[in-house]
Amino acid sequence: MSTIKEYLTADHARCDDFFAMMEDKANTSLADAKEAYEEFAQATERHFQMEERVMFAEFETKTGMTEGPTAMMRHEHVQMRSLVKQMGEALEANNKDKFFGLSETLMILMQQHNMKEEQMLYTMAQQHLSAESPRIVDMMESMIVE
């Protein structure tokens, strides 16, 4: 069984793979990128929900920190959700320049966000939640996206 940090870090890599696939397809044809975009958007939303509905909630309950790192990560999730939505709209409009401009912005934001989570928040979560780690990973693994 993986730790919270291992599980969520691996899921970052999974989302990154979907992102790279989407960009590769979009380089050839925006029409061909729509399915890859949907896969990326769904994987990313699932990741956000695993964090927000499970890990962040458990961390906040255990530590009492509700206005700290989890609040900042939620704020960044809102920004990334907006960019993902706008990318989908650019695909629908067949606007390659807008799609790739948004994609570049999202990639930079995701890299910075993921680094903060992996180096700081996941480490803190693992320290505070190590005893509950198997249960929390199971909850994230079996979660249905709303």
SSE layout:
Layout: H1 4-28, H2 30-63, H3 69-92, H4 96-129, H5 133-141
Helix pairs in contact: 1-2, 1-4, 2-3, 2-4, 2-5, 3-4
Walk me through the structure:
- Pfam families: Hemerythrin (PF01814).
- It comes from Sulfurimonas gotlandica (strain DSM 19862 / JCM 16533 / GD1).
- Residues 5-125 form the Hemerythrin-like domain.
- The protein is mainly α and 146 residues long.
- The protein has 5 helices and no strands.
- It has helices spanning 4-28, 30-63, 69-92, 96-129, 133-141.
- α2 runs parallel beside α4 (96-129).
- The longest helix has 34 residues, at 30-63.
- The model has no long low-confidence stretch (mean pLDDT 95).
Could you give me the name of the CATH homologous superfamily?
Answer: nmb1532 protein domain like
Structural class: mainly alpha
CATH fold label: Four Helix Bundle (Hemerythrin (Met), subunit A)
**CATH class label:** Mainly Alpha
Q: Report the sheet with the most strands, covering strand number, pairing sense and barrel closure.
A: none
* Approximate strand percentage: under 5%
Count the DSSP helices: 5
Question: In total, how many domains does the architecture comprise?
Answer: 1
The N- to C-terminal Cα distance equals 25 Å
Please give the number of β-strands: 0
**Range of helix content:** over 70%
In short:
With 146 residues, the protein is mainly alpha-helical.
